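Chain A, query sequence.
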Amino acid sequence: MTSVLPLQAAEARLRQLPDKLLGLPSSRRCATLRAGQPATFDNVWGSSLALVVAALRQQLAHPIVVVTDSAEAMDDLADDLSTFSHDRIERFPPSLEEDGSQRATDEAWGTRIRLGKQWARGQGAPLTVTCVHALLQKVPAADELLGASRTFSVGQTLEIESLTRWLVENGYQAMTAVELPGEFSHRGGILDLFAHDWQRPVRIEWFDNEIESIRIFEVASQRTVSTTDSIELTVLSSDYRAAASLADWLPSESLVLWHEPKKLAEQGRHLESLTEGAGSSLHVRRSARLVRRLSPSKRRGTERGISWSRSPIASRTGRELWR
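Chain A, predicted structure.
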């Protein structure tokens, strides 16, 4: 017999599954994690990973970062998580180039900056999914990131010409109409601007040298989505070189999940091999330590297991993953 449920009812029932999972014997590992000790869950296949993550997030109420072996696995897991959890879920993707050469057209770089500012201000997502490649890439220090941010507000006095010159000096491209992050368009007393870490562009209107209005709009239709009193613009020059790691951004109470440690170790070895004699900007020492840390000989569990640890900020051994 087949039962057909309306979509909303089906979604509601799926999001009740984490409650049921917490009653199983495996949920006793939550006490281990609360005590600051690592824990391993074996035989976690497919979408059951998302279910386990949602259940532990519900019981432990700590921020969770899940590390997968590839960007594709990261996207799949983020999609699955939305089925079982009401929490905000973010992807922390790898950048195209760590040296900034493609920063103007790299949407992933803008996403990393946006999430970094959220973590720096204590507003990070409860659930974040990333991959080994993204984990090994350097990020700006939190104080540098916030120091490179400017706020523009309605009623503020600002010469539009000085702003456009500053944008060009920092790698923004002047266009007839904005379509992509890193572009701006100037027409009289109107400036359309699409910052790298914004999800939509804004239209700023001036009256003389005073900002009169700020509107967020859709690129395709050019229609206003909403208005705002202020916006924050973060600009890092194209020659800026990041030196921090994701571990420096994470809250100390975070939990880190290593999905399929054997695959992560293999991927770490692969990334390490790419750096040998290639002049890559990936940090070889961090990659090597990742491989050693996730070696199956040092981890209990099967290839399909998942291993948990406390935040690398709270654990010296964990911090070494990125140092």
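The first strand starts at residue 39 and ends at 41. Confidence is low (pLDDT under 50) at residues 277-305, 309-323.
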